[in-house]
Amino acid sequence: MKRDIKDKICLFLATGFGIGFIVPFAPGTFGSIPGVALAYLVALLPVWAQILACAILTLLAVPICDRAEKLLCLKDDGRISADEWLLYPIALIGLPLFALPWWSMIIFFAVVRAVDILKPPPVGALQSIKGGFGITIDDFAANLYSLAVNWAVYIYFFA
Length: 159
Hints:
mainly alpha, globular
């Protein structure tokens, strides 16, 4: 299939700026790393705007993941990480990231990755939904779980 510039841009974004093509193992984890920078950008906003930004990022992830899946010809291809990095800020909504030590982000990131990998119910079942919506919805649900856990971590260790 001949790819035009829109397809190339889509794949670049879908694979975490190409990370999914470069890293031979754990592409979802490595492809999530751009989400850290995005989370810090979103954290600059008031909480209501963080929620709105996360909703927009989620809606943006759906067509990117859908098109990338079609271009890569593999259902929920592991190289696709737009669902991880674009939705990562959801797991940090309202947390005072700039007031926390830098290493707190490592803990928050580990929580998100653990929840995404373990897929507590009903997260795992959501993966069976087809297309970009199916690729994105399980990460949306996993990030909501992660948000709760990350707030608990914040309250217990940092508040």
